């Protein structure tokens, strides 16, 4: 099976925008559609609490005519039009869709950060992990989130194997970002965030990209949007992951990034696995 995951940074802008960046984003959506994946996980949709509009659904149906849509938005008391996740999955599948509450600090559980699809023999789940923020203002809450999320994945894994993707907002090891020496205290590369990701892997999960490419440097999934030369210089971070239950690791076929061209910010990541 083939799966793709992407932090899109506003699906409204992608589907209805007229800017140059909106055009670049739609180009990436066409690339994703051409891959014909079984399911697509999308983070940071930034939709209202009512979800996709009729126009959004119309454009999605044109781009992905064979796919059903599941979505989750930020709801009060969380900020409006913030975070949010979505799945597109082949209509031939009929997974059970859930929107779990994991006991995270308020209002993180209301920010639409997790959707899980239950298939007969595995779980497919996506996450948009909270960023620790400017000045690491949210680092303490982020660590509690990481603990709650790890426990949630372990609960799933106790029932059946798990395939988890998303924007985890952490570069795990020095090889996972271009300038580790300059970012030791930056959000996404603190000792605390990295330690919690280590704990997540130790709880029974495999980083598919690093499993298949143990020594590959310079492979990143995010480049700072505000820094014009970030992508030209490949000054990036690998903060988007496909994780699988350890017992699925030997079934991995590929774990790669999809080239998003000149568009900065996140690039899609793709997993192929023999299920």
Notes on the structure:
The protein is α+β, with helices and mostly antiparallel strands. The protein has a single domain (2-273), classed as 4-Layer Sandwich (Deoxyribonuclease I, Chain A), CATH 3.60.10. Helices cover 25% and strands 25% of the residues. It has helices at 11-16, 20-35, 54-63, 139-159, 191-202, 208-212, and strands spanning 2-7, 39-43, 67-72, 85-90, 96-98, 114-118, 123-128, 162-167, 205-207, 222-223, 236-237, 240-245, 252-257, 265-266, 269-273. A six-stranded mixed sheet has the order 3-4-2-1-15-13. The protein has a six-stranded mixed sheet with strand order 5-6-7-8-12-9. Strands 11-10-14 form a three-stranded antiparallel sheet, with no helix packed on it. Strand 7 (123-128), helix 4 (139-159) and strand 8 (162-167) form a beta-alpha-beta unit. Helix 4 (139-159) runs parallel beside helix 5. The radius of gyration is 17 Å and the shape is globular. The mean pLDDT is 97.
Give the structure's gist in a few sentences.
The chain is of the alpha+beta class. 25% of the residues lie in helices and 25% in strands.
List the topology elements.
Blueprint: E1 2-7, H1 11-16, H2 20-35, E2 39-43, H3 54-63, E3 67-72, E4 85-90, E5 96-98, E6 114-118, E7 123-128, H4 139-159, E8 162-167, H5 191-202, E9 205-207, H6 208-212, E10 222-223, E11 236-237, E12 240-245, E13 252-257, E14 265-266, E15 269-273
Parallel strand pairs: 1-2, 7-8
Antiparallel strand pairs: 1-15, 2-4, 3-4, 5-6, 6-7, 8-12, 9-12, 10-11, 10-14, 13-15
Helix pairs in contact: 4-5
Average the pLDDT over all residues and give the rounded result: 97
Task: Report the CATH C-level class.
Answer: Alpha Beta
Total tally of structural domains: 1
CATH architecture assignment? 4-Layer Sandwich
The percent range for strand residues is: 25-35%
Number of strands: 15
Number of helices: 6
List unreliable stretches of 5+ residues.
none
Please name the fourth-level CATH homologous superfamily. Answer: Endonuclease/exonuclease/phosphatase
Query: Order of strands in the sheet with the most strands?
Result: 3-4-2-1-15-13
- Percent of residues in helices comes to 25-40%
């Amino acid at each position: 099976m083939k799966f793709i995951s992407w932090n899109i940074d506003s699906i409204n802008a992608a589907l209805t925008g007229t800017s140059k960046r909106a055009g670049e984003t739609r180009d990436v959506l066409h690339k994703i559609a051409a891959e014909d994946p079984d399911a697509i996980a999308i983070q940071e949709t930034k939709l209202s609490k009512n979800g996709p509009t009729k126009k959004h659904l119309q454009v999605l149906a044109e781009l992905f005519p064979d796919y059903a849509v599941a979505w989750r938005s930020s709801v009060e008391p969380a900020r409006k039009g913030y975070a949010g996740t979505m799945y597109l999955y082949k209509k031939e599948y009929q997974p059970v869709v859930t929107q779990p509450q994991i006991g995270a600090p308020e209002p993180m559980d209301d920010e639409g950060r997790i959707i899980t699809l239950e298939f007969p023999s595995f779980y497919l789940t996506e996450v948009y992990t909270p960023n620790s923020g400017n000045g690491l203002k949210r680092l303490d809450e982020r660590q509690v989130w990481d603990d709650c999320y790890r426990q949630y994945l372990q609960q799933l894994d106790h029932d059946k194997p798990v395939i988890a993707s998303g924007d985890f907002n952490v570069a795990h090891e020095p090889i996972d970002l271009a300038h580790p020496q300059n970012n030791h205290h930056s959000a996404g590369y603190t000792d605390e965030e990295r330690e919690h990701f280590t704990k997540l892997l130790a709880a029974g999960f495999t980083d598919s990209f690093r499993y298949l490419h143990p020594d590959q440097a310079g492979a990143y999934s995010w480049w700072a949007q505000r820094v014009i030369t970030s992508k030209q210089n490949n000054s990036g971070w690998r903060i988007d992951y496909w994780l699988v239950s350890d017992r699925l690791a030997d079934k991995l076929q590929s774990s790669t990034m999809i080239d998003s061209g000149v568009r900065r910010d996140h690039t899609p990541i793709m997993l192929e696995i023999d299920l």
